[in-house]
Write a structure and sequence with these properties.
Blueprint: H1 3-14, H2 18-31, H3 33-61, H4 63-66, H5 69-78, H6 86-118, H7 120-128, H8 133-171, H9 175-178, H10 181-211, H11 215-220
Length: 223
């Protein structure tokens, strides 16, 4: 007689639409707001740095062909522009970006692993009620995607603003024609893809670990 409610619960959990799983994920983010803010801060810093570097590099790459001769001469004379060393500086900058993204990725993985550890009993309860591994996996990945989207949006906005603020201070009103709207959109699109990809990939292992967890082991865990 006790098997029927369990079977109903299993059917309900198994047949949950993606929208319902997303709703549960959003509720989990609100409950664990400080943990979510930690992940958001990691991705904000990484994406702000990435978008700023790409924006500043865009200004410099088009300076020779789009900048006025007077502007180029003034920058070379003041030491703000070194045409011979520009390529080497760009390579060093890209290495710094890669390092920042790697540090952000490690921070996200660590934060998500801590989130899994804090939710052992919750995961065990869900699995006892019939939640499949795929449900738990989707739950964690959706949470990370939402948090990553928020952090990416904030980080890109900050990075682009900083890049244009620096561009206007160095190049004056010519900054608007050095980096055209289409090129700016390409930078934003690349940062959006990078930010969400970093966050979701950083959550894959913790989400997989949570999904593979045995209900009995999760319920017995001391957190």
């Amino acid at each position: 007689m006790n098997r029927e409610p369990a079977a109903v619960a299993m059917v309900e959990v198994e047949g949950l639409p993606l929208a319902k799983i997303a709703q549960i994920a959003l509720k989990g983010i609100r409950i664990r707001i400080w943990r979510s803010l930690l992940v958001v801060s990691c991705i904000v810093l990484a994406m702000a740095f990435l978008s700023y570097i790409l924006g500043a590099d865009g200004f410099q790459r088009h300076l020779a062909e789009r900048g006025s001769p007077g502007l180029v001469e003034r920058l070379v004379r003041s030491g703000a522009l070194d045409l011979e060393d520009a390529a080497n500086q760009r390579i060093q900058t890209y290495w710094m970006v890669a390092l920042a993204v790697l540090i952000s990725f490690v921070g996200i993985v660590n934060a998500m692993l801590m989130s899994v550890t804090e939710r052992f009993r919750e995961i065990g309860t869900m699995k006892c009620l019939g939640a499949l591994d795929s449900f738990v996996l989707k739950l964690f990945l959706i949470e990370s995607a939402v948090v990553g989207s928020i952090g990416t949006a904030i980080g890109i906005a900050l990075g682009v603003l900083l890049a244009y603020a620096e561009g206007l201070s160095l190049y004056g009103t010519e900054a608007w024609r050095l980096l055209r709207p289409g090129e700016l959109l390409a930078i934003v699109a690349a940062c959006v893809v990078a930010g969400i990809a970093i966050t979701v990939l950083g959550a894959v292992y913790p989400a997989h670990k949570a999904a593979q967890m045995k209900p009995v082991v999760a319920l017995r865990a001391e957190v």
